[in-house]
Amino acid sequence: MRWISETAIVFALIQISHTTQHAFDRIEIHAHNDMRQFFKEPNVFSLFLRNIARFSLCMMIGLGVSATAGVMGNYVPRVSTDPRAVYVFGQVNSSMLKQVKAELLRLESEQPGVPMRVYISSGGGYYADGMEIIHVMQSLSSPVETVCVSQCDSMAALILAAGTPGMRSSHPKARIMVHQLTDDPPRGNIRDLELVLSALRSQQDEYTRLMVKYTKKSTEEISAALIEAKVMPAEGALGLGLIDRVIALTN
After folding, report:
1. Which parts of 40-137 are beta strand (E)?
2. Is 154 a catalytic residue?
3. Which fold has domain 85-246?
4. Catalytic residue status for 171
5. Catalytic residue among 142, 154, 169, 170
6. N or C: which end of the chain has fewer CB within 10 A?
7. Using one digit for the tens of pLDDT, what is the confidence trace for 146-167?
């Protein structure tokens, strides 16, 4: 996508530069000749306007392709023949949220109540976007199986644990990591810092509460795991209650 957009923009610049230079060359030639002959020639200004139109068209194509590439930055091609599979691959952000949400709602509308499978391979991401994915998953009438393919860190681990009980699994070689929520260092006055810290504490409390709910472990056990940034193999995630079984992805 990117090279197509760049090529279109470069072509536009070359085209307008070449033809504009040609037009000014003609003006310079006629400046030394009879100007009446110049006006009998094709209109230089018209030629320049046509060139501007070509330039604009190429720029629109280039920028349009570039914008499309941006929207599809998190696009993951179908890697399974399962028609009811959804993929949470890469950073959990607003772009991924739109794609995953659209897929979940589409599958629900096509066959309500029929199980769907969410494959996850993510290092985590934005808290609000991950929470909305979870809210959509749990608003469906269809059971949602979650599968950790290779990595589920932070917010991705919570999405994994939020699957339908008994239908949460992991590849045997996968890695799962849970930790306390983090944010970029805040900037501003003391009041601003207090507001950011308050919001982060509120998110952390909700994250911990949901982990306790999904894993059926005590608050103390989950809090201890989050403080030490616990990194686990699949068997460790099974022991903590994040998943229900360890499977080999042979299909």
Report:
1. 85-89, 116-122
2. yes
3. 2-enoyl-CoA Hydratase; Chain A, domain 1 (3.90.226)
4. no
5. 154
6. C
7. 999 999 999 999 999 999 999 9
